[in-house]
Amino acid sequence: MTEAAPTAQMIPIAQINILNPRSRNRATFQDIVSNISNVGLKRPITVARREQPSDGKLYDLACGEGRLEAYIALGQTEIPAIVTEATKEDCFLMSLVENLARRPHAPLELMREINNLKSRGYNTTEIAKKIDLAKSYVIGIAHLLDHGEDRLLAAVDKGRVPLSVAMQISNSDDAGIQQALCDAYENKTLRGRKLLTVRKIIEQRKTKGKRLNQGSKPKEERAPTAEALVRVYRQEADRQKDTVRKARLTENRLLFIVTALKQMFRDENFVTLMRAEQMEMLPAYLAERIQAAEKG
Fold it and tell me: Is pLDDT above 70 for 223?
């Protein structure tokens, strides 16, 4: 016998608590709002009734944060919802799994969600089962997270470094890292460009630290020294001299052209030829210079 589909009911939005809020792309959110405004809500949200209501909120949101926020943006006070029996932890997990399943993830996002579950008391076996990942992968990611290895996590996420190699790098000193690279090369885990990429990441980790986007310290503004001022003055003086030299060279070339043209235009045969070719007109600036030279 087929189980009847759950029935949605109208729930006051003010009574819904969002357990796992997340930021979303503004353009994507506007698409959700527009779609709901034009077509309506195709799928109700899912909420669970609180055992001990507080702050006027009787329900925890399990699934449908985007739809809920769209209803709020449209000025609605109630939203269709399916009320389910679930603990607060179950609601959090349902929301997390929906987020993981529905959207592409930025680097480290999946790892952060694994860490969230770990911090809420789930062990690696439970996490792996809930989000459908291999237990060894969850163990490795948890290890890198515990050691603040953001740079290695990003490389693993993008497929630049195998997780096993990243864990060896995290657990080793310089000598151990070199041995790990040799082992990875010998067993063909890392070869060619991929090996060079891993070496670059190791160097960045060594010079810039394990964390990403740590921010650089602003440079202190120093008062210019006498030597620096003299150096700048000399550079500017040299630039000015070079400009003057180029200007004089251009002036001399222009004078040569004007003199040559003046002599050529005194030749009637040349003038006749130029008229026959319809080339008797000169640029205004040259014509003015020739006229000035004639008067001079």
Answer: no
